[in-house]
Specification:
Order of helices and strands: HHHEEH
Number of helices: 4
Structural class: mainly alpha
Shape: extended
Largest sheet: 2 strands, antiparallel
Radius of gyration: 22 Å
Helix content: 55-70%
Strand content: under 5%
Length: 168
């Protein structure tokens, strides 16, 4: 079997490969979650379901989130080291300033949405959930995700209206 050498892949090809692998894993996991033991009753209250693979789905989400945060931190540190002195401005684009602003703005949005998130108790499976830290943390991720999606849509719309290809 031929060994795949990812070091020689173009960035776009590597990104597409990772994207398709993640989509494949998510689709398989979603199908297994729905098709294997989904209708198992909750042992303390038979009116609720307790799907068999809930722990696998939650663990996958935590691993994916943790891996993303770790990769983001490593990439940010590596980028700041590479752009220390000589790569501050590339083709009249302030690359270092953009990198630092994106990192700080993301951190700012996370802190802001954490501070503005509600810590009101929720009723889950008939029991009150009152841990204010995790209630705020979940609100932070939902709020930040919504903000980032809206910002991405705005950036794409802005870019699409400004992109004019010159004929050579």
């Amino acid at each position: 079997m031929k060994k795949i050498d990812f070091r020689h892949y173009a960035t776009e090809r590597l990104s597409n490969f990772v994207f398709y692998v993640l989509i494949g894993i998510i689709v398989v996991l979603a199908l297994l979650f729905r098709l294997v033991g989904f209708d198992m009753p909750y042992e303390y209250n038979f009116d609720y379901n307790a799907p068999l693979l809930t722990g696998v789905v939650v663990t996958f989400m935590l691993v994916l989130t943790g891996g993303t945060l770790l990769l983001m931190a490593c990439t940010m540190i590596r980028g700041m080291r590479l752009n220390k002195d000589e790569n501050r401005v590339v083709n009249n684009i302030p690359a270092r300033r953009i990198s630092v602003c994106v990192a700080l703005d993301t951190l700012f949005v996370l802190v802001l949405t954490f501070a503005l998130s509600s810590d009101d108790s929720l009723k889950i499976n008939g029991a009150a959930y009152t841990d204010s830290f995790w209630l705020r943390a979940s609100g932070m991720f939902v709020g930040t995700s919504l903000f980032m999606v809206v910002a991405a849509i705005a950036a794409v719309a802005f870019g699409a209206t400004r992109y004019i290809r010159k004929s050579h």
